[in-house]
Amino acid sequence: MKLLILNGPNLNLLSTRDKTQYGEKTLEEINEGLREIAARHNVALEFYQSNHEGDLIDKIQELREKISGILVNPGALTHYGYSLRDALEDTALPVVEVHLSNIEEREEFRKIDVLTGVAKERIVGLKEKSYAVGLGKLLEILRQ
Questions:
Q1: CA trace torsion 48, 44, 89, 135 (10° rounding)
Q2: Active site residues per annotation
Q3: Residue 100, by phi and psi: left (phi above 0), alpha (psi -120 to 50) or beta?
Q4: Burial class (CB in 10 A: 0-12, 13-18, 19+), 54
Q5: What are the boundaries of each domain within the chain?
Q6: N or C, where is the chain less crowded by C-beta within 10 Å?
Q7: 3-39 confidence digits (pLDDT tens)
Q8: What is the mean pLDDT of residues 67-83?
Q9: 3.40.50.9100, 2.60.40.1930, 3.30.70.330, 3.60.21.10: CATH of 2-143
Q10: Is 119 in a helix, a strand, or coil?
Q11: CA 13 to CA 10: how far, in whole Å?
């Protein structure tokens, strides 16, 4: 089984952004933790990050028939990325959405989530742990 770990805009700057919202770890450190979890479950992961919505969509379309599910942190695209939403929905694959910060307790515009209805689960506010919990949820969904 292979899963796509998809990261949107500005997530390449983790560890340099507001640490009270986004935590201390770099994206690569988070990815390394996910690799360890995946290895215990005999699951392959493909990681992709882009600051460009079209690139994220291209990656989804490229891999859609080669993967079993998607763990996504869409970053700010959460609030307006309708084409990303459509690409995720079109795969008909299970999607779990993660956010480092609790978007429900931040600015009003961050409460809008266009992935609602596409993502089977949404994990928010656990900083770096959001990814590990999200991967666990995705594996759980795939086993059902």
A1: -90
A2: 99
A3: alpha
A4: exposed
A5: 2-143
A6: C
A7: 999 999 999 999 887 777 777 899 999 999 999 999 9
A8: 96
A9: 3.40.50.9100
A10: strand
A11: 6
